[in-house]
Amino acid sequence: MATDRPRRTRADYQRGLPGYHDPTSGFGGAAPARSALTLRAVLAAFGLVFAAGAAWISFAAGLPAFISWLLVVVAVIAAVDLAWVLYRKGRGEPG
After folding, report:
1. CA distances from 50 to 36, 44, 70, 90 (A)
2. What is the pLDDT of residue 10?
3. How many angstroms separate the CA atoms of 52 and 21, rounded?
4. How many other CB atoms are found less than 10 A from the CB of residue 65?
5. pLDDT at 56
6. What is the enclosing helix (H) or strand (E) of 68?
7. CA 28/CA 18 separation, integer angstroms
8. pLDDT at 14
9. Over the chain (95 residues), what is each successive 10-residue block's mean pLDDT?
10. Sequence spans of domains, the chain
């Protein structure tokens, strides 16, 4: 059975979600943390560019195929992570 929670708005994310990262916040523990989405997006973009470039160079240099394909897999993971972070930032989460 689905719960009928109201959808969160952009203002909710800008204010921050209390206790979102720490289930003990409010009665113990640290204050609610804020996500560093911008830093994560920059790191994912760097990983994507670096891994894609290294894969291209390793294919051109004739290195063993498993190294080249491993770099392609890392580039795909970085692309998926970047897409997810940009989706979260697009819906208004701070960071």
Report:
1. 21, 10, 13, 25
2. 78
3. 33
4. 10
5. 96
6. helix 65-90
7. 13
8. 73
9. 71 68 60 76 96 96 94 97 93 79
10. 34-90
